[in-house]
C-alpha cells in the first residue's frame, strides 16, 4: 500500500507501508491493505506509519485523507515537531 503525506509547503512522506493510523474527526482509524475507498477530514494529531519492520509517527495539524485502490493520500495543513 502506498502512502503520501503532503503539506502546502512540501512533501513529508512517500513510500510503501503495511498500515497507517490517522486522527479522523470522529476518532482515529487504521487503514490496511484493500481498505474500502474513503475520504475523511482529520484533526490535529498523530499519523502512525507502520512498515514491516518499523513505526514512524508524524504529528499533523488537521487536513484530509483519501483512500482509494491501496493508495492513501494525507493532505495535512502542517506538521508539528512535538
UniProtKB/TrEMBL annotation:
SUPFAM superfamilies: Epsilon subunit of F1F0-ATP synthase N-terminal domain. Residues 1-77 form the ATP synthase F1 complex delta/epsilon subunit N-terminal domain. It comes from the Bacteria. The keyword Ribosomal protein does not apply. InterPro entries: ATP_synth_F1_dsu/esu, ATP_synth_F1_dsu/esu_N, ATPsynth_dsu/esu_N. It is found in: Endomembrane system. It is a peripheral membrane protein. Keywords: ATP synthesis, CF(1), Ion transport, Membrane, Transport. GO terms for molecular function: proton-transporting ATP synthase activity, rotational mechanism. Its main location: membrane. Coiled coil: none annotated. CDD domains: F1-ATPase_delta. GO terms for cellular component: endomembrane system; proton-transporting ATP synthase complex. Belongs to the ATPase epsilon chain family. F-type ATPases have 2 components, CF(1) - the catalytic core - and CF(0) - the membrane proton channel. CF(1) has five subunits: alpha(3), beta(3), gamma(1), delta(1), epsilon(1). CF(0) has three main subunits: a, b and c. NCBIfam families: ATP_synt_epsi (TIGR01216). Produces ATP from ADP in the presence of a proton gradient across the membrane. This is ATP synthase F1 subcomplex epsilon subunit. The lineage of its organism: Bacteria, Pseudomonadati, Bacteroidota, Sphingobacteriia, Sphingobacteriales.
Amino acid at each position: 500500500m502506498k502512502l503520501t503525506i503532503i503539506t502546502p509547503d512540501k512533501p513529508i512522506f512517500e513510500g510503501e507501508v503495511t498500515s497507517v493510523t490517522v486522527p479522523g474527526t470522529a476518532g482515529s482509524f487504521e487503514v490496511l491493505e484493500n481498505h474500502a475507498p474513503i475520504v475523511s477530514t482529520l484533526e490535529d494529531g498523530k499519523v502512525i506509519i507502520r512498515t514491516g519492520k518499523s513505526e514512524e509517527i508524524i504529528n499533523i495539524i488537521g487536513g484530509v485523507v483519501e483512500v482509494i485502490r491501496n493508495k492513501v493520500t494525507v493532505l495535512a495543513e502542517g506538521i508539528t515537531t512535538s
